[in-house]
Amino acid sequence: MSEEKIGVYICHCGTNIAKVVDVEDVAEWAGNQPNVEVSREYKFMCSSLGQDLIEEDIKEKGLTRIVVSSCSPHMHEKTFRTACERGGLNPFLVEMANIREHNSWTTDDKVAATQKAKALTNAAIERVVHHQPLEQLPVEINPNTLVVGGGIAGITAALELANGGRHVYLVEREPSIGGHMAQLDKTFPTLDCSACILTPKMVDVGQHPNITLLTWSEVEKVDGFIGNFTVNIRKKARYVNEEHCTGCGICIEKCPFNVVDDIFEAGMGDRKVIYRPFPQAVPKYPVIDKENCVYFQKGKCKACEKFCPTEPNSIEFDQEDEILTVDVGNIILATGFQLFDSTNIPQYGYGRLQNVFTGIEFERMVNASGPTDGKIVLRDKKTAPKSVAIIHCVGSRDENYHKYCSKICCMYSLKFAHLVHERIPDAEVYNCYIDMRTPGKGYEEFYNRLLEEGTHFIRGKVAEVTNAARKPEEEGKLIVQVEDTLIGRQRRVPVDMVILSPAMEAQPDSKGISQLFKMGCDFDGFFTERHPKLDPVATMTDGILIAGACQGPKDVPDSVAQGAAAAARVAGLINLGTVMMEPVRASIHQEECSGCRICNNMCPYNAIVFHADRKVSEVITALCQGCGTCVAACPSGIISGAHFTNDQLFSQIEGILWDVRPEKELVSA
Length: 669
Ligand code: SF4
Ligand code: SF4
Prior knowledge:
Blueprint: E1 6-11, H1 23-30, E2 36-42, H2 48-61, E3 65-70, H3 73-87, E4 94-98, H4 100-104, H5 110-128, E5 137-140, E6 145-148, H6 152-163, E7 168-171, E8 186-187, E9 192-193, H7 194-207, E10 211-214, E11 217-225, E12 228-235, H8 250-254, E13 258-261, E14 269-272, E15 274-275, E16 287-288, H9 294-298, H10 303-307, E17 322-328, E18 330-333, E19 337-339, E20 356-358, H11 359-366, E21 387-394, H12 409-423, E22 428-433, H13 443-452, E23 456-459, E24 462-466, E25 478-484, E26 489-495, E27 497-502, E28 504-506, H14 510-516, E29 544-546, H15 556-576, E30 578-581, E31 586-588, E32 608-611, E33 616-619, H16 629-633, E34 639-641, H17 646-656, H18 663-668
Parallel strand pairs: 1-2, 1-3, 3-4, 6-7, 6-18, 7-10, 18-29, 20-27, 21-22, 21-27, 22-23
Antiparallel strand pairs: 5-30, 8-9, 11-12, 12-17, 13-14, 15-16, 19-28, 24-25, 25-26, 31-34, 32-33
Helix pairs in contact: 1-5, 2-3, 5-17, 6-7, 6-15, 11-12, 12-13
Bound molecules: iron/sulfur cluster (SF4) (2 copies).
């Protein structure tokens, strides 16, 4: 039997664990296991009183190892490591057993849960005996930061850092920063002009000496770890030289070809083939849409080149994509969201019934610089509607599409109603909602304002939008078929225009992005935060942070708050100068290495070098992230991973099988 003295602490977690697991029984049982010096149960082990128990026992009873059976190590491993350290023990001599997420939260069966708690606790007891004291490694932090995504969250993060004197690379895949907010006319509930509050920030980004703005660019490769990332960025060819171009716009004016603008104008308007997405775009330089450029497709035209007044000419048809490499210490992802495709719900008629519009189409229509100069009109572009129905929750709170609430749709639907009243005072406006959700500063007041403005509110999920009239007054109208649950009857509401308020959803490539940056995303494709309440801007990958709607549906104030929070977190790390890295690393026993080099190419962090003179491989400790790939790959079994040695893992496995092992084995363990 080992000489170690183990302290075991079983947590009730209030009733989270104790309501299913017989905590007293587990603690009493653990006290009888080999090497266990003391075994206790306590209401909240993470509380300061709980931590004091550990600290005092280490000092008074001379404990050399600690086991805490409680919640996930993601939650409190650091807490208990720190408690050990305060008691004078190396922080890596603690092991946690997760008897909450892996046990009490998964079953109501008290007998089985208590048995499993013993198994998990025993696994930790047997494993912790083999733990070794380890030291964390200090790693210097590169003070430069990469922000990916130039919407309001990314802009905020970039400006916060840049204003604090730190250099930022801001990468945006569209030709201009601004994101969805640049498309909006007004923002709820204050009805600020969206462009008026956004464009000064965009200009600040474009002119800031601490920001390298890389629009029309995408991240292709990310290597490294917190403090030391190396990132490859593809800067796509604009076919316009940014150093020579003055942004005069003559090329746009002279380009003879128009195409439908499906991105910024949401298909409601045209743009030229050489274009700036919108007048206030940052940067101001245009970009040639190669797919639709007649010169690129047919070898003729070059009107833009002919009329460009700069010397040398700014049009460069032979420009090619560039790959830039930047070194940064931290990365903030603010890659935003997309809107649900309303054609997925055919019964609402979008794409089939011409006067059914999406929310973003309406946003462009009411925008003074939009395709109708701010006039609310039907698809014929001249008739103002006398009645409008706005349908909330299109694709949200729907078992068939997204179960979640998109959080912003009620409020932007109310904004639409207000804008219709403002522009067409005698129009009847109907808002069809499932539940009215207005949690936010001034939001409920805005709803009350809409009640006073005379909006008709119908509580019920719309079943169908149709043009099949049943009565004379329905002729030529769109009929919204809805069950009004407040009065308990079906209604048919004839209107001239229907506006759908689609769900916010994750970007279509969010899973690919999460793999590129080696972090997680949830079932809906939103990036996974380290903790949904306590750490919403960090991820499980150190040095990679998230902000804005890439983490989940969010309005402008929340996106701004997250952008600033992510920047503050990064600024704090930069100020520290170094970060302590987990000492979980691989090492190769040099004298036993056969030099087969199998491990060399398997390391995803390029952390293994081969010494040709000695014919042995070696792990560069500073680069190793402890993923364990090489440990598993080595055919000679001579690579070991600190904190995950064979002794530790096999003991843990044996420990978890305590109740199926023969009694003599258990005793001899
Ligand atoms: S005409 Fe030349 S200088 Fe003017 S915006 Fe076009 S490319 Fe730039
Ligand atoms: S454990 Fe091995 S494969 Fe993984 S990062 Fe370290 S050296 Fe590379």
